[in-house]
Amino acid sequence: MATQHRAASTAADNGARATAPEAGPRVLRGLVGMLSANAAALSANRVLSIALPWFVLTTTGSVGKTGLVAFCQIVPYVISQALAGPIIDRIGPKRISVVGDLLSTAAMATAPLLYLTGNLPFGVLLALLAVVGVADGPANGAKGLFVPSATRAARVPIERGTGLSAAVERTATTVGPALAGVVVTAFGSLYALWVTAALFAVSALIVSTTLTDPVPEPHETPVEESGGYLSQLRQGAAFLRDAKLLRSIVLMLAVTNLLDQAFMSVLLPVWAKESGNGAAAIGLVVSVFAATSIIAALVAAGVAERLPRRTVYLIGFALGGLPRFAAMALGAPLWLVLTVLAVGGLGSGFVNPIVGAVTYELIPTPLLGRVKTLAQAVTWAGIPFGGLLGAGLVTLTGTSTALWIVGGLYLVAIALPGMSREWSGMRKQTASEPSTIDAADDMAGAGPARALPHEEPSVHAAA
Predict the structure, then answer these.
(1) Nearest Cα to Cα of residue 194 among 115, 95, 119
(2) Number of C-alpha atoms within 13 angstroms, CB side, residue 178?
């Protein structure tokens, strides 16, 4: 309990400091480096998500094998990220990020080389993808740990760092697939794998030359380290379990990510087909939502620190959630659906900066790796099952009813926790407020504090 009280006290200090940037010289190198490295690594993932299935489908002709490749990458990704936290805390996020990106570079460069020499059996390709997943999970999680220190060095509010990070993630999600399409169309899917390898290498170079490992702030009370790897892993899990606000945020993101995946992988394509709008409507829906959410994330980077957090969260998620499902379920014309999606993108674009800022304020620096990577893995845990949920609902109830059900569940998932008492802790503390254990316990939910995502605990499709 001594460790938990220290962490809670730290969370209160973090909340107080987040109100205004510290005085001193302004260093932008870390912030620019962190954003650039994330842009390269996330773009590599997005290119791979398009190029790899097409490569397998065109070279093997097997739909089953095409579906298997994504599974063999994402499962090791989630597992390795969940288990990497104590190692990141011990070794440092810089080395983990660089080594992970270099391993991904080597694996992605090896695949086309073996294919060109006629030595790429399907099993070897799966093994190389597993290497990418195992390496990229910790590397991606490690990059997120630079956000607090980079924003402090740049003397900007934490919301600006999380807002810019969200904008980078959304831009990569939009530009990456487009880049993959251009490369595959012009040169072939094999060359897209080379592009993926190059982007991972660029990320490793940027991290190695621009970033340094975060260190505890002078005001932070040291956190007691307990035992070896397994003990530290349990410490991170206990921290996540006992911090009520943090736990509630992570569970909310896990549910909304599951529902977003059901929407993206099944409900959206089925609606496009049955409505007669065709495959082009899928691209329009995704592009419109992504474009407005990027704009909103950039705006949030500039103004989010002055906005009431819980209010912004509730409004943003409400706009980005149920209305899109309702518009499609009611058979609205395409122009109206796109308008609803554009408004929803503007609303949801404010969510990640707010949620990201809260979670960074809750976790003390020495525990960032073991808590945040575990939290992000939890938020991703339901994504592989989203397609199954969507397909099951469409089969049992039909498309329109399935859209209403998923939209209703989305509303419940954001409203119930958002209206609970512990979510009042999303507000910022000011420097004049007491930084006591009791105040921190109230903010964190009577326990130790502190969490994505895009990936922060990331808001997946809504992000």
Answers:
(1) 115
(2) 11
How many Cα atoms within 13 Å fall on the side-chain side of residue 64?
1
Centre a 10 Å sphere on the Cβ of residue 219 and count the other Cβ atoms it contains.
12
For residue 385 the two structure tokens come to 């099952």
Q: Write the single-letter amino acid at 68.
A: L
**Residue in the structure block whose two tokens are 């790897």:** 229
Residues 87, 174: Cα–Cα separation, whole Å = 32
Both tokens of 422, joined, read 């512990």
CA separation for the pair 283, 278 (Å, rounded): 10
Tokens representing 69? 């490749």
d(CA 319, CA 348): 7
HEC-encoded secondary structure of 408-421: HHHHHHHHHHHCCH
How many Cβ atoms from other residues are within 10 Å of residue 285's Cβ? 23
Cα–Cα distance for residue pair 145/375, rounded to 1 Å: 13
Residue 1 CB contacts under 8 Å (≥ 6 apart), including other chains = none
Using CB atoms within 10 Å of the CB of residue 251, give its burial: 0 to 12 exposed, 13 to 18 middle, 19+ buried.
Answer: middle
SS (H, E, C) 345-404: HHHHCCHHHHHHHHHHHHCCHHHHHHHHHHHHHHHHCCHHHHHHHHHHHHHHHCHHHHHH
pLDDT digits (tens, 9 = 90+) for 351-398: 777 777 777 777 877 788 788 888 888 887 777 787 788 888 888 888
Distance, CA of 253 to CA of 267 (rounded, Å) = 19
pLDDT digits (tens, 9 = 90+) for 186-244: 888 788 899 999 999 999 999 999 988 887 665 555 556 566 788 878 888 888 888 78
DSSP state of 263: I
Measured CA to CA, the distance from residue 16 to residue 430 in angstroms comes to: 5
pLDDT in tens, 320-348: 888 889 998 998 898 898 899 888 888 87
Dist. CA 370–CA 323, nearest whole Å: 36
Instruction: Tell me the whole-structure pTM to 2 decimals.
Output: 0.71
SS3 205: helix
Per the CB < 8 A criterion, the answer to whether 51 and 192 are in contact is: yes
Consecutive 10-residue runs of the chain (463 residues): their mean pLDDT? 41 43 71 91 85 79 72 82 85 92 94 88 90 91 85 81 81 80 81 91 94 71 66 81 82 86 80 78 77 82 72 80 88 89 83 77 79 82 78 86 91 79 59 36 33 38 37
